[in-house]
Amino acid sequence: MTNFNLVILGMDYTYTIIDQDATSSLQLQHYLEDYGDFQCVAQATDHEDGLNTILKHHPDIVFLNLDHGASLYFQMVKELHLYITEFPVLIGISSGKEHAYDAIKNDFFDYWLLPFNEFDMRKTLLRLKKQLPKEHTGTTLCLKSYKDFHYLDTDEILYLKADNNSTDFFMKDGSTISAFKTLKTFESQLPKNFIRVHQSYILNMNFVSRINYGKGLCTLKTSKMQLPFSKTYRENIDSLKKVLSKNSITTLN
């Protein structure tokens, strides 16, 4: 059994830090690590390198320390409009308030004063998540263990089965991949087409061909395998039925 961890590609908010001060840059990264869904893709120390970094990595968020060369950074922001259509969220960082007005004029999302205030940061990040929710943009699971990276296309996963403190992934091609994590670990992080139907099973609804309420069974299209569902997850089964029935023609026997 391989001791895998779970990463869902495309779920993190990516960010770039443009800051001459290595200490504040490192401190900011440490703060963001506590939230778990923010990934640093690059760092820069001046406006030219910062512009190149943004155009190269297309981060969701750009943190700008305005204490050094603020006017150059504001000019960089204006120049960005010439090259990109999806503009990043801009958050200014400064030891004083003198650049706050210009930050507002340049549509900065927020402005943080140094030293960092954890409460202010938390409010900003929660507001960002609420106003700009990050959707499931990727359909790949990366199960990683040390230097081993195993990539699974979620469209190829039939179902997941709990096996004590581990989880087995049953694939469309007949293979099985095991991860040393509980089923609950994966439940909240998988795409919306995966639903929990039993203490031991999560199904990919795209492969369900039949729901038998009398026997408490779901049948899969590919393998014709029948998997049980329990009363505890009856609400999920009802939601599954609505989704499958939405675009189907119903006949009564």
Automatic annotation (TrEMBL):
Residues 141-246 form the HTH LytTR-type domain. The keyword DNA-binding applies. GO terms for molecular function: DNA binding; phosphorelay response regulator activity. Signal peptide: none annotated. SUPFAM superfamilies: CheY-like (SSF52172). Keywords: DNA-binding. Pfam families: LytTR. Residues 14-129 form the Response regulatory domain. The keyword Transcription regulation does not apply. InterPro entries: CheY-like_superfamily (IPR011006), LytR-like (IPR046947), LytTR_DNA-bd_dom (IPR007492), Sig_transdc_resp-reg_receiver (IPR001789). This is DNA-binding LytR/AlgR family response regulator. It comes from Zeaxanthinibacter enoshimensis. The lineage of its organism: Bacteria, Pseudomonadati, Bacteroidota, Flavobacteriia, Flavobacteriales.
